[in-house]
Amino acid sequence: MDSKPSESSYELRLQAAERFAQGDASAVIAKDLRVSVRSVQRWRHVWEGAVHVLWARRGRRRCRG
Predict the structure, then answer these.
(1) How far, rounded to the nearest angstrom, does the alpha carbon of residue 31 sit from its chain's CA centroid?
(2) Which helix (H) or strand (E) is 10 found in, with range?
(3) 15 Cβ partners below 8 Å, 6+ apart?
(4) What ranges do the domains of the chain cover?
(5) Is the pLDDT of residue 1 over 70?
(6) What is the pLDDT of residues 4-39, one digit of tens each?
(7) DSSP labels for 12-52?
(8) pLDDT classification of 65: cutoffs 50, 70, 90
(9) From CA 17, how far away is CA 36, in angstroms rounded?
(10) Residue 32: closest CA among 12, 6, 11
(11) For residues 5 and 22, what is the distance between their CA atoms, to the nearest angstrom?
């Protein structure tokens, strides 16, 4: 399953991240973006970790202030 030649993998990951935030399923995202479900699952795992880190940092800042 190849993506369109004009779309970089970065752009695909950005589109996937928007869909993660909307709560879309990995299989649906993979089909729409024409990539493997496993790729979307890996991207989701990274995205969820990043969101967790951002929330943790935000919480620490509030405690200081």
Answers:
(1) 15
(2) helix 9-22
(3) 33
(4) 9-64
(5) no
(6) 555 699 999 999 999 999 999 999 999 999 999 999
(7) HHHHHHHHHHHT--HHHHHHHHTS-HHHHHHHHHHHHHHHH
(8) very low
(9) 15
(10) 12
(11) 26
